[in-house]
Amino acid sequence: MKMQSLPAPQTTAPLLRVDNLSVSFRTDHGPLPALQGVSLGVSPGETLAVVGESGSGKSVLSLALMNLLPPTATMTADHLSFDGRDLASLGQRDKRALRGRDMAMIFQEPATALNPVQRIGDQLVEAILLHDDMPRVRAHTRAVEALAATGIPSPDVRARAYPHQLSGGMRQRALIAMALIHRPRLLIADEPTTALDVTVQAQILDLIRDLAREVGTATIFITHDMGVVAEMADRVAVLYAGRMVEMASAADLFDSPEHPYTLGLLGSMPQLSQRGAPMLPITGTVPDPRHMPPGCHFHTRCPFANGTCETVRPQLRRLGPARLTACHYAPLLETLGART
Amino acid sequence: MMVRLLRRAAVSLVVLTGVLLIGFLMLQVIPADPAVAIAGPQGTEAEIEAIRRHLGLDQPLIVQFLYYLQRVLSGDMGHSVINNASVSAELLRAIGPTVELMCAAMLWAVPTALALGILAALRRGGIIDRMVMTLAVMGVSIPVFWVGLLMIQFAVRTRAFPIQGRGGPLWTLDGLSHIALPATALGLILIGPIARMTRTTLSDALHADHVRTARAKGASETRVVLNHALRTAILPVITLIGLQIGSLMGGAVVTETIFSWPGVGRLAVGAIIAGDYPMAQGAIIFLASAFIIVNVAVDLLNELADPRLGART
């Protein structure tokens, strides 16, 4: 049942490339697949959004790329390279040297992602000293500068504060400062704004985009929020139940989604429904990974599914130069337009 | 912080008064009349009555208690009815050996328990984990007096250690060999709870978000465990160690009795058995006050270690 692996569509040489990545977790009830046959790449300066519901495997993907999966996870990939170096061949020490310096990560929960019993400044200083050799005092100055760059007011005071003394937005700014302190070449942001207020959300998104642009970093942006995707992404990969179901440029994806799941995520189907017709949300929930339906994993929730979908799993197909989808009926507009 | 401290002190004072009251009442219900004991077998009824009046035993309970409070507060805890020795002086003499024994027990048991707990957490579900947890359960379930008796049996057969009393100062071989067995027996009480708690909190902390952040920074696994996971996991363990000092004192009473260690515990047991009313009261009050003070100290220590607690006032 191995999915045919298509190389990710790419225009420039990718900074990070992964082919046919699968991750499964060891559980008491046997292995639990979390990701299957995912291939993607991201180029310098580019922002790739990875979208999907909870349970689609997007957080597992980010942890797998950072080599931060828990010991209960098993990961396989045909190819996994960063800046032309094969990550699989690197030892723990070399991977650690990349982590935090060349590849950095921002996490979802700023409330818990910072060490509760360490001052903010000390946490940044640690991040600096792990990869740069310099006197502690200078590292501290640099930490305060980094906090200032994220727009935290009176950064020297905040550096002496503990995480619980800061607001959620400020904590996330501190985490961003920490992640970007070594001007990483790849930044993975795992739902960095989900836990924040909407107004703070917009500021944090701007901050990540501006700093990433300034540093010239490639960004993988994990989210379930299509509004955030529209705001941030150059390209979009859509995950469903551990598999990639669509990949397209952000413009193409919003203009003409080619997978019914993407349509559902967008929340409405303007191209297919009559003007004024009710929106079409996705019904049901993500299927249990231990009891995946046969055929297309989405068929139980898909409004267009028919007999073929229940038995034959659609493979990722190339629709355009930078466009992949895993639906029998793509391109949707032609096929379904003809059917209805 | 200051307000919290004062409030803690006030509460402790109330608890302490309660302890004094309970200690006072407990010995009231014991079916032994101190006046009779003091008068001895040849004491006449008149003599007993005179002693009773002298000790204030003819007064109502509440008056007796108030007198008693007044005397305790002025540092006078009365005199032994057996040998007329000052209770305060006897206690002062016994505190040193008890503190020494408890410190010796903690000195080996706390680091050992922490190390075992850390090992078990890092290899959770593995052979080491299971061995450590079995040991921990054994440590909790086997009573101190039984371990003490086994040790005495062992020491008598091998003649490796003295089994009674306190030797010279601890930096001499004599002192060390005397304290070895009682400290080992007493320390075993601590191993189980501390190792278990460390294992639980550390294995939780190893999956905490901030520990993942530390890994994402590129910190080595040793650094991740010691500086990040253990730093937060240790907080409940500190509290537990503080609470365990209570059971350590209980254990000290037993251990001191078995090994004839001249501490407060043996003093208390001896006094209770001999019906030495003021001495037993003094020892009980001392043990209880020590317990309360230690708890306040642990609270303060926790506050220093966890910045989040200080902010809650």
From TrEMBL, chain B:
Record key words, sorted:
Cell membrane, Membrane, Transmembrane, Transmembrane helix, Transport
Gene Ontology CC annotation, any one: plasma membrane
Q: Where in the cell is it found?
A: Cell membrane
Please give, as recorded in its UniProt entry, the membrane topology of this protein: Multi-pass membrane protein
Which stretches are transmembrane?
99-122, 134-156, 176-195, 233-259, 279-298
GO biological process terms held by the UniProt record: transmembrane transport
What start-end ranges are recorded for coiled-coil regions in this protein?
none
- Residue intervals of the ABC transmembrane type-1 domain: 95-302
Which CDD domains has this protein been placed in? TM_PBP2
Q: Which domain of life is it from?
A: Bacteria
Spell out the family assignment given in the record's similarity comment. Answer: Belongs to the binding-protein-dependent transport system permease family.
What this protein is called in its record is: ABC transporter permease subunit
